[in-house]
């Protein structure tokens, strides 16, 4: 559908046409006849005597005064639509408070008619209206007639093309790696709440890839407040859309809470935008950069600040809700059909093996891609595909639909239409989606991403994110249902999601803890590929540039992203891309005064929406025998190999027709397959085009680019390492250090005070990120193995790993500060070592044997590192360069700050605040038998002296781990061991605030230790605070000498009456300790308390209650 064709809803306000209001948004308004009838298609001639009445159920409530809305399932409205579709067959209608009843269809045949742009179109409706307070004029809820929608759409679509997505691959993989490592840490018996982890993954992925913001969902027990606020706002908006409008005024408390959530979300959106403005990241390939700095090519305008603020929740909401649901459905279906999972896993093993997944591998995962497509068919995350009739028309030859009437396709039914999919349409069979089976499907049989200009803009983003995650999970784990008898249950207003679906993930035999993890597992050998040589001919800047026109087609942004690439390099060749238009805009007006470059795909053999008129015009010219004299052109064809029978059909048609009409082809047509390598063919063709248009020879161009600019910086050993996210480390100074507990009942525990750099601020509850050091023992072992001395320096040439020094660095410094020396060895690393052993030698046989079980399992169990294995084979001649290339970078460690800046002992901001940390020392004989295992950061910190400098950084918490603003609210703290750290910071702050007076609520600390005499951390300080009324301490000792142990959860349950009073008073609950132990067990106790005191529900309701108080910041977990 052309852009001009979707701007006008036949029943929407239009100043020029004076059209009527949309009945979906404004029920009860009369329809006016448009003053400009040319904007509306001619009415069909309809014989009503041959038509059937669309069936409709009887009203079940209030004598039908409120229509059918009260009859719908309030928690899962679509469930009612499914039942009615089962009852009535392919069509029914409901009275939902609109001018006309809403029609629902469930067959592929009727949905196919809905896809006819001359009869139906897509407009915003009541759901969009109710979502507008949340999403404003963002892409989801803005009207198609809104100038802001078009500006944002034109600006943002290109970044979701193949080029843009390829640049997002690393960040997507990084976040899936976090999920994989989390599951691995919890072990095979841990029950994973699938929808919860998938929501964390999808939310984090959109945040990082779109806005460069890390919500760090895998580092906290609770969801980020923004996710909770957004989810609640979406759910309530959906409920408002499903209620009769007259009833919404009675839900004023729910609306007040929704507006509070919206206000909080806006605060963070403004902060994200302002942070990017204050700290520009010109290299970032994300939406935020484009929204702030991009200029719409048609209006010459940028997006407004308010519009950008609305786009952030729009993309987060649309991106995480449906993607997380889809991922959960995929894992449910794979677990339900284990034979299918085995096939998918086999493909992953063949394509990826034990290496790290790369972008180039994704197109090879064809069966896994088919699994994803089939899952979207079987259980779509959304409910309905909705369009409006643009004129009176007839569906299926027998059902009358009025102009302006809403018609919704029920995804569950038309995606399972037995006429298309067969009698087994309810079965999960990915083979349906492979190659020619997929190609043979009738039109509009499978349409999970909608259609037209308002189709899902993030389709490619979601597909890539899902494919990466499922591939990485199947590579590492065997996945099974926690409850083998579980049958899918659903909930949801806007997006459907599963309830109580839990899985277990067991690491597969032979897989190490770092298998498939970027930087930790084996890197695949990349095939030699041709890369652009940055051809930049020397063109006199004063010479006028040659103008060229670029015409593009496409809905998904790939063609536009290629156009932008051409625009960037054209000036280097004396060319100017100063005329950029859609193909439709060139209908009847192909330029003859300049070269015309055409970039377009085809969609299942059809032109894209913005190229339909152009193609039709060319075909008319061809049939009439008209010639196009003076036109010079070049075509780059985009295709998708999923559509085998129509691959490149439209660009080939355009190319052949232009040639037959007498136009001159400037260069041979280029071809790029978006399912494989698009970038390589495009760059080759782009270079050929620019050389041909500029008249510069390839030899001359390549000579001109000889020689590179080199920037040399003298090496400085005090150059500070960076941490993830690009934040620069600062220098902190050790102000105090002492041991809190020895090793008699567990790991030794330490307290360290760090004076931060002047001007560095923190709050109670924040984190201190510390760059540790490898131990002297492991560094010296490494240097001895390779016969190196402390005076030696090293330089690494031509490496993409930024932690390897490209300028001289002392080797001892490098080994101590840049790489992980103690990480367990992987099978791929063993194979690499074996390549450097002589064939048929004992060393080679030994190394190959170590890759097999049970020898390899023994290596993992006892944490043998690469260095440990090398120590057993002193005769292996391994180059030092190979050794360091096997090692991952040394990662910083994160500690909760255990102090408050309000304490007098914390100093001042000007002189440098003091931040305390409390930690366990990890130091014990190495399980491998090679020396001592030393925790990288804990051993380093415990060995510091007062006055020593360390590299550190304050990382603000994303949790509300602070005292309530209302000091009268009670607080409960639950901690174990060094988990006392953030509690001490909160209590230190409370003690200082209480000196200023005021009515403070009760504070209780449940603190778990092993023995009162041996590891009761901060005992004197806690007792002093208790005497001063700052806190009531309930110490719990699990291993007291000669006595029965008591855990914090035991004490919590014993005091459940008082704890429930805290809940009823709106108090805040803090928990800090092990996620697998304290985090889980404390949550279970609180659910038991709720169940006993409220007398309501079961396990699911208890979980919903706990999630509710987490969402509003009253239950805060900082677990590890």
TrEMBL record:
Q: What is its EC number?
A: 1.14.14.1, 1.6.2.4
Q: Which CDD domains match?
A: bifunctional_CYPOR, CYP120A1
User: What cofactor requirement does the entry state?
Assistant: heme; FAD; FMN
Kindly give the SUPFAM superfamilies that the UniProt entry links to this protein: Cytochrome P450, Ferredoxin reductase-like, C-terminal NADP-linked domain, Flavoproteins, Riboflavin synthase domain-like
FAD-binding FR-type domain: residues covered = 727-964
Provide the Flavodoxin-like domain boundaries. 548-690
Q: Which family does it belong to?
A: In the N-terminal section; belongs to the cytochrome P450 family.
Q: Which PANTHER family match?
A: BIFUNCTIONAL CYTOCHROME P450_NADPH--P450 REDUCTASE (PTHR19384:SF127), NITRIC OXIDE SYNTHASE-RELATED (PTHR19384)
Full protein name:
Bifunctional cytochrome P450/NADPH--P450 reductase
Q: Which organism does this sequence originate in?
A: Podospora pseudopauciseta
